[in-house]
Amino acid sequence: MAKKEVINMIDTFSEFKELKSIDRMTMISVLEDSFRNVIAKMFGTDENYDVIINPDKGDLEIWRNRTIVEDEELEDPNTEISLTEAKKIDEDFEVGEDVTDEVFFEDFGRRAILNLRQTLASKILELQKDSLYNKYKEKIGEIVSGEVYQIWKKEILLLDDEKEELLLPKTEQIPSDFFRKGEHVRAVVERVDNKNNNPKIILSRTSPVFLERLFELEVPEINDGLITIKNIARIPGERAKVAVESYDDRIDPVGACVGMKGSRIHGIVRELRNENIDIINYTSNMNLYIQRALSPAKITTIKLNEEERRAEVFLRPEEVSLAIGKGGLNIKLASMLTGYVIDVYRDIDDFDEEDIYLDEFRDEIDEWVIEQLKKLGYVTAKAVLGVDKETLAKEADLEEDTVDELFAILSAEFEDEE
């Protein structure tokens, strides 16, 4: 019966190996260490034992090595054997020689087998924890799926395909998230805690990385590297802004992310509980970047303070509410996306009397020049005249002659009024 128990334990470990993908060498090593651990506890040392394991067949061999001593000099029966006992094995044995004989673990008694069971269980648990930690440490930033197993007030317990435990804290859930037991949930691996060798896999649905990974799944051009997500600003469950850039002039990054009739973006929006997602073209031109980030508001003028990372944005009164957005979401996300603190100001009430929109100069100024200036946030004559010529030429990518002509036309209009 005892022998059967030992073999059963080896079989059990073999099953564990199949389930947890533990490599053969690790499995054999753990089994051998467990047997040696019990032998060392019984005899004080395991150095004179050879443990041979074949887990595939459930075979176990233990060989003991002892030195032959005179009968009256025998002190340690574990490491020594008397000459009389040795000659029972082979008549030719002499003092000083080594004797190797097979011993059977089941002969060590019930206590040894219980110790072996406890040691093996402890090592298996340790292996399981190490395997779980290493597996999910490599998955940080990746989307995983789990089945809702238990719902608590502060977190939800999920089980992955291998029944490993994953935690989704309330703080990492979208405010409108609602899950039922048995439901499958997608989230990104936020971090893996391993306090006291007790790994905890923490998931998140509020992380910007979760949104980024969803785009990678839905938009092949992003997955292929043709389109890059440059930055994401997100208020989970409410609204998000995503800045994208294409390395191929033939690809419209915004259109590719939205998809035909919104086919690509709709799947992401549904996953995020109807979170509104604005996709904008990234640009290194901060004036234009801020203007796009504040969309749908149309900006009159922008003044940047690069040292303090602040932007003063001037808009017509009817555009201010659009720039700020419901509950201040639009301006907050624009600030998060661009990294600039954005201050919004209304243009003066007597604007129409003091300034002129560039659109009114279409007969004198090429349309493409006007559009280029408007993209930079310069939509009025005074906004353009308030900028240094050299700066404007650089920002709008215009020739010096073109800038000089532009300034002459705009200045002349105000001189005529005077």
Provide key terms for this protein.
24% strand; 5-stranded antiparallel beta sheet; N Utilization Substance Protein A, Chain:P, domain 4; alpha+beta; elongated; GMP Synthetase, Chain A, domain 3; 418 residues; OB fold (Dihydrolipoamide Acetyltransferase, E2P)
In short:
The protein is of the alpha+beta class and 418 residues long. The protein is 42% helix and 24% strand.
Blueprint (SSEs and pairs):
Elements: H1 2-20, H2 24-43, E1 49-54, E2 59-69, E3 80-82, H3 83-89, E4 98-103, H4 110-137, E5 143-151, E6 155-159, E7 165-169, E8 184-193, E9 200-204, H5 208-218, H6 220-223, E10 227-235, E11 239-246, H7 253-258, H8 263-271, E12 276-281, H9 286-293, E13 299-305, E14 310-315, H10 317-324, H11 329-338, E15 341-346, H12 351-354, H13 367-375, H14 381-385, H15 389-396, H16 400-417
Parallel strand pairs: 2-3, 11-12, 14-15
Antiparallel strand pairs: 1-2, 2-4, 5-6, 5-8, 6-7, 8-9, 10-11, 13-14
Strand order, main sheet: write it out: 7-6-5-8-9
Structure summary, number of beta strands = 15
Largest sheet features: 5 strands, antiparallel
Would you tell me the structural class of the helices and strands?
Answer: alpha+beta
Could you give the distance between the termini?
113 Å
CATH class of the largest domain, named: Alpha Beta
Mean pLDDT: 86
* Gyration radius, rounded: 37 Å
Helix content: 40-55%
Do you know the CATH topology of the largest domain?
Answer: N Utilization Substance Protein A, Chain:P, domain 4
Q: Quickly give the CATH architecture of the largest domain.
A: 2-Layer Sandwich
Pfam families: KH_NusA_1st, KH_NusA_2nd, NusA_N
GO molecular function, one term: DNA-binding transcription factor activity
Family: Belongs to the NusA family.
Subunit structure: Monomer. Binds directly to the core enzyme of the DNA-dependent RNA polymerase and to nascent RNA.
